[in-house]
Amino acid sequence: MQKRNNKSANIYTINKIKNYFWIIFAISLFSYLVYKIIRNSFTDSIIGNNPQTAKAVIINDKNYEPNSPVGAEFTYSYQFIVNRKAYEGNSHDQTLKLEIQSKFNITKNIQVLINL
């Protein structure tokens, strides 16, 4: 009789663990779906429904980093053109370098998402 009680107790424990597993799995799946929906909603409103990619070029405009006690650290600006209008911004990348020849050549391109 003692063996039978232990066996039924083990089955009850296993079933209880299975139930907890499926409850946690369902909550995790639901939470992930809600996260993806909310994330996509904010992304769509920021970028828009029809984002486009423009190729930006690095220009010889230096942006010096503040609070640089030892050296004058800087980053170069980038520029891209959309509908004959030029847009510029700070690349925030100190690894970008310019090669000086008769004109400036780009050693690295930046992809920029724009909203038209």
Walkthrough of the structure:
By secondary structure, the protein is α+β, with helices and mostly antiparallel strands. Helices cover 40% and strands 34% of the residues. The chain is built from 1 helix and 6 strands; from the N terminus they run H-E-E-E-E-E-E. The strands form 2 sheets. A 4-stranded antiparallel beta sheet has the order 3-2-1-6, with no helix packed on it. Strands 4-5 form a two-stranded antiparallel ribbon. The longest helix has 46 residues, at 2-47. It is elongated and about 80 Å long. The model is unreliable at 102-107 (pLDDT under 50).
How large is the share of residues in beta strands? 25-35%
Oligomeric form:
single chain
Adjacency order of strands in the biggest sheet: 3-2-1-6
What is the makeup of the main sheet? 4 strands, antiparallel
Portion in helices? 25-40%
From the spread of the alpha carbons, the general shape counts as elongated
Secondary structure tally, helices: 1
Order of helices and strands: HEEEEEE
Structural class: alpha+beta
Work out the radius of gyration. 29 Å
What's the rounded overall pLDDT mean? Answer: 75
- Low-confidence parts, pLDDT < 50 over ≥5 residues? 102-107
Give me the count of strands. Answer: 6
Distance between the termini: 78 Å
Question: Concise description?
Answer:
The protein is of the alpha+beta class. 40% of the residues lie in helices and 34% in strands. It is built from one helix and six strands.
